[in-house]
Amino acid sequence: MALNKKPVTGMKDIMPAEMQIRDYVTGVIKETYARYGFTPIETPCMENIENLSSKQGGENEKLIFKVLKRGEKLNLETAKEEADVVDFGMRYDLTVPLVRYYSNHANELPSPFKALQMGNVWRADRPQKGRYRQFMQCDIDILGEATNLAEIELILATTETLGRLGFNGFEIRINDRRILKAMAAYSGFDEADFDSIFITLDKMDKIGLDGVEKELLEDGFDKDSVEKYLSLFSGMNEASDTLSYIEEKLADYMDGEVMKGFREIIESVNVAKGDFFKLVFDPMLVRGMSYYTGTIFEIAMPEFGGSCGGGGRYDKMVGRFTGNDVPACGFSIGFERIIMLLLENGFEVPKQSEKAAYLIEKNYPADRLPDVIAKAQEERATGKQVLLVHMNKNKKFQKEKLEAEGYKEIKEFFK
Questions:
Q1: How many whole angstroms separate alpha carbon 158 and alpha carbon 281?
Q2: In the prediction, which pLDDT does 20 show?
């Protein structure tokens, strides 16, 4: 029986043209983030299963590719539960591995530590447009910085990167989990129900205000609390200054420093940013990860119609590893979706080196071949890309393919 030549469902082979763009984008990302002082790191593709299933990754924990124990450690006959047969898992994001890395090496790292990490992650998800089971993530994180300087730097570095890749007119939507919690408390909901309420709120863009109300009531929440909660959103739509409206309404449910810091982030970014994106307060932004403790943000691309990245502050996560909390904040670019948009827009890598192809007849004299190779080496030394290849029988078709691949100069060598 012939082997299956197709890639695993939800994963893909990457063709040379796309790979060129991916390499270019990776270079722009690394160069831009280096300007902001971010240091590249790398972590393993697998983590201990208890780290990945510690109830910090939200819905993603249901999507872990789990790795069976090996050799004599794997005993299926005596196994009674999953823990008896599984010890590792493929990482579903880069944040949990980063925090473990930082917890393990904190004494060797500067403070604050500004990390750049790019790498594949795996989720047993349903594949769809722009969503795969194996995909590249690109994260920047600042650990050890408690002030809003972390959020400001993350937003500016991320948006500058997107701007250098040619993206314009996008939005960075920003909110704060503490504002979300204060809104829920103001409405009379129990704190134990906050996460459930936020999951429903996160569907607002799909089901609307009426849909959120219906779902909350179907989940058994008090009608008065639901109406009071939704009235906050109606009030914000009518208010001339949304932040002032929120600040006044939630004064008894939220530390005043939260809104002060939130305004500081918005004002600082607006002063420093270019005109190619907008920073927008979005009171309905939730972000799915349960580890977020403060500011949260998301990239909204008009041509995609969905999120192309996001992040936020997660000050309690390091403490799960070390017992001591460390302030932390991160921003992730949706690398695969960015690549998809560039491909759809016919993006071409700028300033590529010149490409030449040497077509050598298969019967070309062996004693003259070294001269051809020497000539190719001379051109390569000047920075030119030179392809040395035998001439096909259908030379016309071969040359057409080479020209389509960007080979502007094609030399032929006959005997």
A1: 17
A2: 92
